[in-house]
Amino acid sequence: MAALLDKFGRPITDLRIAITDHCNYKCVYCRTGNEGALYRDLPIADYLRMAGVFAALGIKKVRLTGGEPLLRKGIVELVRDLAKLRSADGEPLELAITTNGHLLAEMAQPLKDAGLDRVTVSMDAVDRDRFARITRVPNGYDNVLAGIRAAKRAGLEPVKVNCVLLRGFNEDQIIPFGKFAREEGVVLRFIEFMPLEEDRVWSPDVVVTLDEILERMSEYLPLVEIPHARSETSRRYRFEDGLGEIGIIAPVSHPFCGHCSRIRVTSDGKIRTCLFSVWDHDLHAQMRRGATDAELEAFIREVVLHKEERHHIGEPDFIPASRTMVHIGG
């Protein structure tokens, strides 16, 4: 079967499926604190069918997101069924989850046993009080730390920890996170703040850029850049003494759109070809109408063909995405 390509010749190999629009955190850079879930969740079986169709088209990696995916009943069974799928080349899918980690301690081992390969934990401070102010959840820090350690024990490695940096808010956590990565044996990834929050108050001034992160971290220990695949979103570095790795995802200051290999499905079954798309493509509507798998494949190919060339963050003609991040899926 022909590879799943867009009109720019980019192969699409990575699928992210949001399996719920609900979240148990209200992080200040993400949610206003007033809005909850806006879109309905689908039956677990529908997400599985979508993943199977995408796998037949050559998708190799599936990441479950939300909202907070560990809130979703049936997630262990979904992972077990996804682990039975094969990509078009006959290889098993690489399965991952992005989670806030609050429920991970008790679920890490069952997820690993079901076939999960890796986990990424979103965590924006390594200070308990700062963490509580960011998430607006008291006592969450200890739960997340326990979840990270449980994931390592279960073998869901490399365990990655994602931190979104906002100037004037948590940029002083850069060096503490470097120390945390070395002490806990996790791969740390800083993410530049993007205009995807519910308040829509994004400004370039609040972005802590890749260059600034590197400069600050070098005050702690020197970094050495290490190779990364062209389609990877993260620029990777290790500490000079070899202990610890960090990555920096820099869509604002160093866009990587030219090698994008990703596509997303929202919790209500809409395809999004880019985080900053201004429209959705209703895959689930096709399913409700009784479309066969072959018809769904044709629909997906047509949507992917018209994937955007790049985002336009910071440009005069930039139009905000039609959904905010929490309603797209990480």
Description:
- The chain is an alpha/beta fold.
- Helices cover 28% and strands 17% of the residues.
- The chain has 9 helices and 12 strands.
- The longest helix is centred in the middle third of the chain and has 15 residues, at 140-154.
- The mean pLDDT is 88.
- Widest sheet: strand ordering: 7-8-9-6-5-4-3-2-1-10-11-12
Largest sheet: 12 strands, mixed
Counting helices, strands and paired strands, the structural category is alpha/beta
Using the alpha-carbon principal axes, give the shape: globular
Order of helices and strands: EHEHEHEHHEHEHEEEEEEHH
In terms of quaternary structure, what is this?
single chain
**Span between N and C termini?**
29 Å
Mean pLDDT: 88
- Secondary structure: helix percent: 25-40%
Determine and state the CATH class. Answer: Alpha Beta
CATH topology: TIM Barrel
* Strand runs, count: 12
Number of helices: 9
What is the beta-strand fraction?
A: 15-25%
Q: Give the number of domains.
A: 1
* Poorly predicted segments: none
CATH superfamily: Aldolase class I
Q: What is the name of the CATH architecture?
A: Alpha-Beta Barrel
Estimated radius of gyration: 19 Å
Topology, pairings included?
Blueprint: E1 14-18, H1 44-56, E2 61-65, H2 75-82, E3 94-99, H3 104-114, E4 118-122, H4 128-135, H5 140-154, E5 160-165, H6 174-184, E6 187-192, H7 210-218, E7 223-226, E8 234-239, E9 245-249, E10 262-265, E11 270-272, E12 281-282, H8 283-288, H9 293-305
Parallel strand pairs: 1-2, 1-10, 2-3, 3-4, 4-5, 5-6, 6-9
Antiparallel strand pairs: 7-8, 8-9, 10-11, 11-12
Helix pairs in contact: 1-2, 2-3, 3-5
